[in-house]
Amino acid sequence: MAADASKKNFDEELVGVPSRADGEVTDAVFGNVEEGGPDYRSVGWLGASVLMMKTEVGLGVLSIPEAFNVLGMIPGIILLLVIGGITTWSSYVVGQFKLKHPQVYGIPDVGMLLFGPIGRDCLAVAFCLFWIFIAGSAMLGVSIGLNAVSTHGTCTAVFVAVAAVIGFSIASIRTLGKISALAWIGMFSILSAIFAVTIATGVQDRPAAAPQTGDFKSNWQLVGSPTFADAMSAICSLIFAFAGVPAYFSIASEMRNPHHYTYSLAMCRGIAISTYLIIGIIVYYYCGSFVASPALGSAGNLMKKVSYGLALPGLIVSTVLYIHLTAKYVFIRALRNSKHLTANTLIHWASWIGCVFTTSIIAYCIASGIPAFGGLVSLMGAVFGTLMCFQPMGAMWLYDNWNRPDRGSAKWTAMVSWAIFVIVAGTFLMIAGTYGSVVGLINIFAESDGSAAWSCADNSNSV
């Protein structure tokens, strides 16, 4: 009964678009926004779209050619489209759910509506761990880039620390509206880098990892023959490429008009899926089994320097965005329904900086402790990517549509079946993918030249 009462009270919080009265803004998530306080509702639909793209087109795309190498060209393309289709539906459900329940800021709030305080707290832990681990992956990507550009100018552990300091400094910006300007730079940066590598792999004689003497012919395969563990690990890398979905609640919450969310989603997914297909097909076709992960190292030492030089701003923005999203959820959770959430008070600033700093430190420890990019990406896609992109969205659709007027119709039955399929598929992929990813990480650390925790070794040499 207590859990039901908590859900009812949460569901009856302020709803609707922001209203203004006497110079004050009332919002379903942020409450009363005082004049002079941060303007959280400042993201337009274009800004929202580029924020969505930046949560996805970055780290994920760099592992797609390697996933194709494991699965083969045809299974890789089919699975990429299938996962893209499911997560696009999940993303659409997020937008519809946000309109019906404006007080929801993130997946944990969904857990509160569906399952009460226990559901909220369980999903809150998963949500925060997911973004912190991805922030760690982004820091690792920055360290690889700095190593590549500087030809291992200093200890890798120092580069990871530099990434953490930069991430913390910029992520302290309080609103996504301002960070969206950086997201444009980040998107241009990462797209320039990956298309430069794509073109280079097509015009060069052979990939960097291939034998440099004798005749060379790409050994790409239509269909691969991976072990179960390898296949699941590769599939989870593809899931990771679309794993920006849980951030969409936060982005929609800071949009000036959440009704424009679908426009932002359509633009984001159109560009993302097209980019993933182009990069995956072309790079794998020309590199075959000699493709690197991250893919920016596939075209030789010179292009590795060029591509990472182009990509560094994008990798830094990714780090910033992932730290910001995690810190913002904890910040709102701690100060919700308090004047300190939106007023420039000492408690407001101390809480915000503390959340950003703590998130940055934990992400830094993860980046230094698991310095294997491909394995970390796959593990995140398996453990948290499915949990954040599949099961909750199926449950959200059932929550809002179980008792709708056409219940029992063929359309309703088909959609119920689809929602249940998404939940079941996500659960299977989470369990099987975690197994495959853990096996892969164990193999990486077992190699004599494998990466080590807090190592000074050049982590760009293996890519």
Named CATH architecture: Up-down Bundle
User: So how many helices?
Assistant: 16
Q: Determine the CATH superfamily.
A: Amino acid/polyamine transporter I
CATH class: Mainly Alpha
Number of DSSP-assigned strands: 3
Mean pLDDT: 84
Please identify the structural class as seen in this structure: mainly alpha
The radius of gyration computed from the alpha-carbon positions, rounded to a whole number of angstroms, is 22 Å
Order of helices and strands: HEEEHHHHHHHHHHHHHHH
- List the uncertain runs: 10-23
- As for the number of domains, it is 1
Helix content: 55-70%
Shape: globular
Task: Write a brief structural summary.
The chain has helices spanning 2-11, 45-56, 64-71, 73-100, 107-115, 117-150, 156-171, 176-203, 228-241, 247-253, 261-287, 301-335, 346-369, 373-389, 391-401, 410-446, and strands spanning 19-21, 24-27, 31-33. By secondary structure, it is mainly α.
Features:
Amino acid/polyamine transporter I; 3 strands; mainly alpha; 463 residues
What does this structure look like?
- This protein is mostly helical.
- It has a single domain, classed as Amino acid/polyamine transporter I (Up-down Bundle).
- α4 runs parallel beside α10 and α12 crosses α13.
- The radius of gyration is 22 Å and the shape is globular.
- About 3% of the residues have low confidence.
List the helices and strands and how they pair.
Elements: H1 2-11, E1 19-21, E2 24-27, E3 31-33, H2 45-56, H3 64-71, H4 73-100, H5 107-115, H6 117-150, H7 156-171, H8 176-203, H9 228-241, H10 247-253, H11 261-287, H12 301-335, H13 346-369, H14 373-389, H15 391-401, H16 410-446
Antiparallel strand pairs: 1-2, 2-3
Helix pairs in contact: 1-5, 2-8, 2-10, 2-11, 3-4, 3-9, 3-11, 4-10, 4-11, 4-15, 5-6, 5-15, 6-7, 6-12, 6-13, 6-14, 7-12, 7-13, 8-11, 8-12, 9-14, 9-16, 12-13, 14-16, 15-16
Transmembrane segments: 70-94, 122-144, 150-170, 182-203, 231-251, 263-286, 306-325, 346-370, 376-399, 420-445
InterPro entries: AA_transpt_TM
Family: Belongs to the amino acid/polyamine transporter 2 family.
